[in-house]
């Protein structure tokens, strides 16, 4: 009755591209901060701010993914309940409980 959705998995190339992109962005930011002509405390503050931003972004991405997975689970449970009701439903059954055309 219900179709099980195909679980999508990322390819190795997509995973590699994401990791490489993250590494390049972090390296470029680190180089930019340390090449900045400012006091050491300013560079340290910017480095800490970047690290905090990265950890916050990872946490937000995890929370969004978890919420999406919970929504999919709830949807699958609701679909299973609906499938069960439809399978058990007999449209030819009289309100009294005996199927039409059969004697009690």
Automatic annotation (TrEMBL):
It comes from the Bacteria. The chain crosses the membrane at residues 12-34, 40-61. It holds the Pfam family YiaAB. InterPro entries: YiaA-like (IPR038972), YiaAB (IPR008024). Keywords: Membrane, Transmembrane, Transmembrane helix. Residues 14-66 form the YiaAB two helix domain. This is YiaA/YiaB family inner membrane protein.
């Amino acid at each position: 009755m219900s179709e099980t959705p195909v679980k999508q998995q990322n390819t190795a190339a997509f995973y590699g591209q994401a990791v490489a992109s993250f590494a390049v962005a972090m390296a470029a930011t680190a180089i930019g901060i340390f090449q900045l002509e400012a006091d050491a405390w300013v560079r340290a503050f910017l480095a800490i701010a970047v690290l905090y931003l990265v950890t916050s972004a990872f946490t937000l991405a995890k929370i969004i993914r978890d919420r999406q997975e919970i929504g999919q689970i709830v949807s699958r449970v609701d679909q299973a309940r609906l499938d069960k009701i439809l399978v058990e439903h007999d449209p030819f059954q009289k309100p009294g409980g005996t199927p039409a055309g059969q004697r009690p």
